[in-house]
Automatic annotation (TrEMBL):
Region: Disordered, residue numbers: 32-63
Top-level taxonomic group: Bacteria
GO molecular function: hydrolase activity; metal ion binding
The protein, known as: Arylsulfatase
Organism: Bradyrhizobium hipponense
């Protein structure tokens, strides 16, 4: 038997050994893995091979005996990135044209982007895909957008491999790779890459930011195209809907998400100061709606940046760009299109409106950049900016033409094929940028903010749609502060750049799935040599059938058949392969695609077309499809496929995307809503059922005890059915019955409001919404969590003060099958 004295000596020895094991002894093994601390000690860390993720379970190398005192513990080492691996701050703003920010010649002040450019490098030939979801999928995965099934935005997904919107498990994102290599990963802002049918609080969540494909530990942001910055009802913390704006006047998401990111930076520095982090920062700025604070609107308006109009602005920007060196001295300014009016031809009222639109947009960009600056400064305040790789991508595509010719007080108007005039917009002049508008600017500004290039967002064949400013800094490594790089690069090159900077390999297997190779090339080669030959030698582009192919300084491009601001429901399918003509440019000599060489060099053009065909086949680009609006209402997968009866037994909130069956979609069909309610003594009021809000939607509610059904037709008109008498205490059955005058999109119909089987009001509505409700609002029963469909009637949350025993929605057939859509589009076309 062991004596007590010997036992004490053995315990003391183990305590001493344990303290020694905590010393940071750094070694590199034969496989190149870096370790610190004695193996098996609580303080041991290790890098991993990184090609196979997750790393295999570390073997136990201690001793196990019946008694712990006679055993030897052995802790698995904590996984850490390689020594010297930088923190990563990846920033992507939204809908920012190449020349909007001051950093690339614009007049809108962007000091945060300037800061990164001045301490690092400015890339002048960096490209995106021309549209939101595709660019973001390519950015995060390092693969072409069709390779990761995101040929268009997720709302327009179709059932082909390149277009179904589901990022495949064999192409995991940079967040998952870094997370499994020991990084803390967090994401703030927009995620427009969740398939619509998975975009509810019911999930599944594997395609969400915190899922195993994207791989972020923490998420704070919105899911979908865009969001009101004042009342974003599609805002989530991880996978939980939140409404921090309720009861918080003046709250704005641009500031709130900066607060969130700054808070996490400070928390990590306090709790795990040595752990590298990656932050993906993707604000809604500057996608419509343009929602800066009043202070920023005044600051920009007082600068009078746009008083001379878009044509003069373009000339000013072009001169600035040559002075800055972000375009060559021999670059030509592309011509102004005939389809956009010259500034001098406009009426005084139109000029006044358009200047207001530009001021609000510029304020939004300046505000967004300022809040990004707070995040950058928070890293600097921790002393970690020197070892942080900051990549600031200014826009996910070119400037947006979606405001059409006059601008929009309400983005959902044009989404429903309603085109506001100057006179309509002027009614909202003073409120422009506030929560009473969902605004966008006129397309003339988009063309100016893409100076010196042609075209805009959506046009993948010209640099106005795809060339975005990008700045990159890592003070500890990139020493050519303020340098300019002109190599041709694409958004798929960002992920491999981050991996090389971190000293990590591209994984060949992740979570048991063999990975397709990353298709981007690292940009690290350009850091030390401004004149290094570009390593991206070939790159295809395609969006809505418009396409281009770049190879070795040449680009072949197809001009669009119609301008992207010409949105209508008349979209009959075309022979996309043969309908487009091609142009040819030598961009080594013609930086801005000004001089078409197709007629002079037909053999070269044919060679380029063949290269496009091979690349398109390789990356799942076919079949080509040039439709836009009608794809929003195309059939998509649903966890409630074929469901025509929806029954609710009480309060339910924040269910998005009724188009995919997550909630009842009332568009383009007949329907009946029946609510069985119990009214207490003293009466009741509040919301029974709603979807949408201030800018498009419907609500079924009691107002001062009287039943009301309201349709909000893009804030231009509100059509109501109202009972004359308040409901007496007791049980009642309320019903709204809509008979649709289809087939067709957005047709008229007749609504009947009933109380206990008796019609209390019935009348027609001359038109209905054809395409969408507000995508940043949600379906609710028993309350309203976003904005009200009529601010004069009620304010959110407007909870129902009685009891809903049962609420049932019965849907008639959707009267727009694919064949009918084509037929209706053809009829509309024939009438024009």
């Amino acid at each position: 038997m062991t004596s007590a004295s010997n036992l004490h000596q053995r315990v003391a020895s183990r305590i001493l050994l344990g303290s020694l094991l905590l010393l940071p002894l750094a070694t590199v093994d034969a496989q190149g893995q870096q370790t610190t601390g004695a193996p098996g000690s609580p303080g041991a860390t290790t890098t991993i091979d990184g090609r196979y993720l997750p790393n295999p379970t570390q073997p136990f190398k201690g001793e196990i005996n019946p008694n712990a005192v006679q055993s030897k513990p052995y802790w698995p080492a904590l996984v850490t990135p390689p020594k010297g691996a930088p923190n990563v701050l990846l920033i992507m703003t939204d809908d920012v044209g190449f020349s909007a920010p001051s950093t690339f010649g614009g007049v809108i002040p962007t000091p945060a982007l300037d800061r990164i450019a001045q301490t690092g490098l400015r890339y002048t030939a960096f490209h995106t895909t021309a549209l939101c979801s595709p660019t973001r999928a390519a950015l995060l995965t390092g693969r072409n957008h069709h390779s990761v099934n995101t040929g268009v935005v997720v709302d327009q997904a179709t059932g082909y491999p390149g277009y179904n919107s589901v990022i495949p498990r064999d192409a995991v994102a940079i967040g998952e790779i870094l997370r499994q290599n020991g990084y803390d990963t967090s994401w703030y802002g927009k995620d427009h890459n969740v398939p619509q049918w998975e975009g509810t609080q019911a999930g599944p969540f594997h395609n969400w930011p915190t899922g195993p494909i994207k791989g972020f530990d923490y998420y704070y942001g919105f899911v979908g195209d865009d969001a009101s910055q004042w009342q974003p009802n599609n805002l989530f913390r991880n996978t939980t809907p939140i409404q921090p704006f309720l009861g918080n006047p003046g709250w704005n998401l641009i500031t709130a998400m900066a607060d969130e990111a700054v808070g996490r930076i400070k928390m990590l520095n306090d709790v795990q100061p040595d752990r590298p982090f990656m932050i993906y920062y993707a604000p809604g700025g500057t996608h419509s709606p343009h929602h800066p604070t009043p202070e920023w609107i005044k600051k920009i308006s007082d600068m009078h940046l746009f008083d001379k109009g878009w044509n003069a602005l373009r000339e000013q920007i072009f001169a600035n760009q040559k002075r800055l060196g972000v375009i060559p001295q021999n670059a030509q300014l592309t011509s102004w299109p005939d389809s956009i009016p010259q500034w001098d031809t406009l009426s005084p009222e139109a000029k006044k409106l358009y200047i207001r639109e530009a001021d609000v947009y510029a304020a939004y960009l300046a505000y967004t950049d300022s809040e990004i600056g707070r995040v950058i400064q928070a890293i600097a305040d921790t002393g970690k900016l020197d070892n942080t790789l900051v990549i600031y991508v200014s826009g996910d595509n070119g400037a947006s033409p979606e405001g059409t010719l006059h601008g929009l007080f309400n983005e959902f108007a044009v989404a429903n094929a309603v085109h506001p005039t100057v006179e309509m917009n002027m009614k909202f002049y003073d409120a422009w940028g506030s929560d009473q508008t969902y605004p966008h600017y006129a397309v003339g500004w988009a063309w100016a903010w893409d100076t010196p290039y042609k075209w805009t967002k959506q046009i993948a064949s010209y640099f106005g749609g795809t060339r975005n400013g990008m700045a990159m800094a890592w003070p500890a490594r990139i020493k050519d502060a303020g340098g300019i790089r002109n190599q041709f690069h694409h958004v798929i090159d960002i992920a491999p750049t981050i991996l090389e900077a971190a000293g990590l390999p591209q994984p060949v297997m992740v979570n048991g799935i063999a990975q397709k190779p990353i298709e981007g090339v690292s940009m690290v080669y350009s850091w030390d040599n401004a004149t290094a030959p570009g390593q991206r030698t070939t790159q295809y582009f395609e969006m809505f059938g418009k396409r281009a192919i770049y190879q070795d300084g040449w680009i072949a491009s197809t001009p669009p058949l119609s301008p992207p601001w010409d949105l209508s429901l008349a979209e009959p399918p075309t022979d996309v392969m043969n309908a487009f003509r091609w142009e040819l440019y030598n961009i080594k000599e013609d930086w801005t695609q000004s001089n078409d060489l197709a007629a002079r060099m037909p053999e070269k053009l044919r060679d380029m077309q063949q290269v496009f065909a091979m690349e398109a086949t390789k990356y799942q680009v076919f079949p080509l499809d040039d439709t836009r609006l009608t794809r929003f209402i195309s059939h998509k997968p649903s966890y409630s496929a074929g469901r025509t009866v929806f029954t609710y037994s009480g309060e339910l909130s924040n269910v998005p995307f009724p188009e995919t069956g997550s909630a009842p979609s009332l568009l383009n069909r007949s329907y009946t809503v029946t609510a069985e309610v119990d009214i207490p003594q003293g009466g009741a009021e509040g919301m029974l059922m709603t979807d949408g809000g201030r800018f498009a939607g419907y609500g079924f509610y009691l107002l001062r005890g009287k039943p009301v059904f309201t349709w909000n037709l893009v804030a231009l008109e509100r059509v109501k059915w109202q009972g004359k008498d308040a409901l007496a205490p007791g049980k009642h059955t309320l019903e709204f019955d809509w008979k649709y005058d289809g087939p067709g999109l957005g047709k008229s119909g007749t609504g009947s409001l009933k109380v206990d089987g008796k019609v209390v009001e019935s009348h027609p509505m001359p038109r209905s919404l054809p395409i969408t409700l507000m995508w940043d609002e949600t379906f609710n029963v028993g309350l309203d969590t976003g904005t009200s469909v009529d601010d004069q009637d009620y304010q959110v949350p407007f909870k129902f003060t009685g009891k809903i025993s049962k609420l049932t929605v019965k849907l008639g057939p959707n009267e727009m099958s694919s064949a009918e859509k084509e037929s209706v589009a053809t009829k509309i076309r024939d009438k024009q």
